[in-house]
Amino acid sequence: MKLLAPGTEVDGFVVRECIHAGGMAHIYAVAYAQQARDPGFSLAMKIPRMTAGDGAENIVSFEVELQILPVLSGPHVPRFVAAGDLLRLPYLVMEYVPGQTLQHWLDQPERPDAATVAQLGSAMALAAHSLHQQNCCHLDLKPGNVLIKPDGSAVLLDFGLSCHAHYPDLLAEEMRKAVGSPAWIAPEQVVGVRGDLRSDIFAIGVMLYELATGALPFGAPTTQGGLRQRLWMTPAPPRAHRPDLPEWLQEIILRCLEPEAAQRYPSAAHLAFDLANPGQVPITERGRRTRGPGVRAHLKRWLKAAGMHYQPSPLPTSQIEEAPILMVAVPHQDVQDATLYSLREAVARSLGIRPGARLACVTVLSPSASSTSDAGRSETTLHRTHLARLKAWAQPLPLAGHSVSYHVLEASDVGQALVRYAEGNRVGLMILGAATHGLQLQRFIDTVPIRVAREAPCTVILVKQQLPFEQLHASGTSP
Predict the structure, then answer these.
(1) From residue 352, how far is each of 294, 319, 346 by CA, in Å?
(2) How far is Cα 278 from Cα 270, in angstroms, rounded to an integer?
(3) Of 31, 63, 95, which residue is a domain's last?
(4) Residues 270-288 pLDDT 10s
(5) How far is Cα 77 from Cα 66, in angstroms, rounded to an integer?
(6) Which Pfam families does the record match to this protein (predicted)?
(7) For a Cys-Cys bond, which of 13, 93, 141, 214 suits 82, CB 3.0-4.6 Å?
């Protein structure tokens, strides 16, 4: 259809201007014709292209977005407002979100520094995680579909190729070929597996690679054979393009781009965590590479990919629950051995039944306590001392197969600090003990843990103090 002229009225909406003319849809800035209906935010109307030369995927994609967008919520998606009659004039009206797409950073003459790449990547990962928590996978993440708001957070756009676990997958029913944008599509999507949250992690990895190097890791293939190469191909290490990149950033990017979904981050929250804590990213051979694998390694990958059987995708929320970020609040002073032992036992049990979980060990210092009890010691020395204590506490834990990091926070309100940490890092499970705040504050023991449990955005386990059996026996007390 022709572009709508400014001033055109459509079902009570007045068109102001066309703000985007894409290959699948036109997007207009619109407003309610009646001022009394003003929702309090700017509006955009999306109308799919439906000329004779446009493919059937345009209207199918519109139906997918019409099905999914109204059920999504949160700050990382535009708010749904209205939809038009599919037979008369299909359209979607949604919130217009101000900001710049990721393409803005890619169009700059110089590549952003590692810190900026990490900030943008963390914003994308947190937005994707919010989507996955609603059992939806975007499956078409690319620079034009990621909007960065002035506050640095990300909003995801265009859900025409998405998949929601609670609704029919119209694209899988209608299309018989890989569905996605060639430069960013994940290997499992190429063979028709949809709905895996780790496909979005792969796409974020492609964007991180391009932000860091200015190149696409797999190019922009136009044939099915070209797409299938990513089932076994390993891209050139980012540091081969840009030697000044830190190893931790390359480690993160290449983990996102692993051909097998199981080798990537188990959730977008894990990815965001590493991007926000680069100093604690364990560097493997991936991060140290300066050249890609040789012919023999690629041949082995090709043979493995040729015989691989792809399984249906796990439910996004199930995947997140199986591999949560587990946080433990470890006391730092006036603490009994029983508390430290009980906390460690609880963490060990939780890790044992969650093979993909990562552990964040956190201790909170009171500013007044640190200034009196540690007088004469520099802040850096104090920080290192408490990091060493956390590592010593965690040393007996069965950490094989688990990522672990250590964090020393400073706050006058310990409970609030724990809650904010859990919120900011998308923690799935928090463990804390009765003596988390020190023995001199025991009279508050009934209020602080309860407040944390009430306000925390995740499951909270309160651990009762308990000495090991051999110590109980030695003290003459029967268990």
Answers:
(1) 37, 16, 10
(2) 12
(3) 95
(4) 999 999 999 999 999 999 9
(5) 14
(6) Pkinase (PF00069), Usp (PF00582)
(7) 93
